Amino acid sequence: MGSTSYPQTQAWRVDIAFALAVCIFPLLYLKRIDRRWTLAYLALLPFAMWWLLKGGMGLPAISSTKFAGILVTVFLGVVGMVFALPIGILLALGRRSKKPVIRILSILYIELIRSVPVITLLFMASLMIQLFLPPGMNIDILLRVLAVLILFTAAYMAETVRGGLQGMSKGQYEAAAALGFSYWKTMGLIILPQVLRNTIPPLLTQFVGLFKETTLVMVVGVLDVVGIAMSTTSAPEWIGLENEVYLFLALFFFVICFALSRYARYLERQMEKSRR
């Protein structure tokens, strides 16, 4: 599941991190588990995976240059999904804010990010950011590309959430104001739960897009599963076996994306039942 350059004596850390990521799917389907525990698991998962893979706090530190293959793809996809949605929600709320400064900054950010190809942002993160940092300061390349994927996806999610917010009737806000709810209480308890429930299909579609966009990190030197596959097919012992490698890649992305699409359909059915 990881690169062969990852220390073999520490390979158990890769296995545990991968298992923690895979556990997301059964947790999303199990109704008996309180959703608050599921959300807590999702919130802690990125930090647990980074600690396991990178080290520190009792574990030997391992350079990010040792990360490659499915390990990178799963890490970028899972962590990107966990962080992109809350940032997108904040951006959507900021774009509808009555405070001009917050609204203008949110609009500028969303429009700027949406108008620039993600591959351009990846090149900027890998090459240009270091030019603006103080001498001796270095930001992990894996964190830089992860930040790009999160912020890029969040800008698109912000527009999806904003569309859901615009579809809410004014009566919802007036009812909350009549009950004395504050702005954040209104959003957290009344508005956003309905908005997110109505925008689940497009949001999960964007999650699928994020997972597929992780393959672009190969162009900035971060070897995901596609990067490893390309380097493998160039090896003498793999000449003539390119079709098998491409078939594996197709099956890998199909399984992940199909699982996400089926979960979107599952949530839609649950919504239909709740409305009856």
How would you explain this protein's 3D organization?
This protein has a single domain (68-275), classed as Orthogonal Bundle (MetI-like fold). The N and C termini lie far apart (44 Å). It is built from 12 helices and no strands. It is globular and about 70 Å long. With 276 residues, it is mostly helical.
Major sheet summary line: none
* Count of helix runs: 12
Helix content: over 70%
**Total strand segments:** 0
Averaging pLDDT over every residue, what do you get? 85
The CATH H-level superfamily is: MetI-like
Domains (count): 1
Low-pLDDT sequence parts: none
Please write the CATH class name.
Answer: Mainly Alpha
Q: Which secondary-structure class do the elements indicate?
A: mainly alpha
**Silhouette:** globular
Task: Quote the beta fraction.
Answer: under 5%
Order of helices and strands: HHHHHHHHHHHH
Distance between the termini: 44 Å
Q: Radius of gyration, Cα only, in angstroms?
A: 21 Å
Descriptive keywords:
single chain, 276 residues, mainly alpha, MetI-like fold, 72% helix, globular
SSE map:
Elements: H1 11-22, H2 24-29, H3 35-54, H4 70-95, H5 100-114, H6 118-128, H7 141-166, H8 170-178, H9 183-198, H10 200-213, H11 225-233, H12 242-275
How would you briefly describe this protein structure?
This protein is an all-alpha fold.
